[in-house]
Amino acid sequence: MASAPLSAADHIHLPDTARDLVKILVAGPFGVGKTTLIDSVSEIRPLHTEEPLSEESAQVDDLAGVRDKATTTVAIDFGRISLPGGIVLYLFGTPGQERFRSLWDDIAYGALGALVLVDTRRIDASFDVLGLVEETGLPYAVAFNAFPDAPRHYTDRQLRAALDLEPATPMVTCDAREADSSIDALLALVQHLIDRHPPEHR
Description:
Elements: E1 20-27, H1 34-41, E2 50-52, H2 55-60, E3 71-73, E4 77-83, E5 87-93, H3 104-108, E6 113-118, H4 127-136, E7 140-145, H5 156-163, E8 171-174, H6 179-196
Parallel strand pairs: 1-5, 1-6, 6-7, 7-8
Antiparallel strand pairs: 2-3, 4-5
C-alpha cells in the first residue's frame, strides 16, 4: 500500500526532491468519482470548478446511478501529489459530459497519461471517454471505483472484454474516497508509463 500524502498545510511548495513533473488526466464519465479521487490524494488544497446541478442540466446529463449527486465539474479539478523517487503528479480532472468535449484538447495538452475511472454499475457510460482518450493517443490505466452497491461478480476477463481493453492496459480497483487506494491506482498508471518509456540511466 502507498503512503497517504501529507496534509495541504505541510506541502504547499514543491519538495526539494522533485525531479520529474508529470501532467496526468483523471478522466471518466459524469459522477464516477474524479473530484473525490483528487480530493483524497492532493497534498495541496485542490482547485475545483463545481456548480450545483440545475433542472436544465438534469435534462441533459444522465443521472442514472448517481441520483444523489448535487454538483458537477464545469471546467477542471486540479491537485498535486509527490510520489517516491522525485515524481510529482499534477492531476487534472476532466468533465465527463459530452457537452464539455471542446475543453478536452486544451486540458489534455502536455499530459503523459490518463487514469480512467469506471463505474461497474454503468459500464457503458465509460465508452465515450475511453474512445476520447484513445483518440488522443494517451496511454492510460483503468480504475474501477468501488461504489458500495457496485456489482462484484464480474471477472477481470469480462471487464476487459466489456471495455475492449488491450491486454497491456492496467486494470485496478480503487476506492476514490481513500487516499491509499487512490494512490495505488495512480501508481499503476505511472508504472505503465515507465514500462512504455523506460527512463534513461541517470
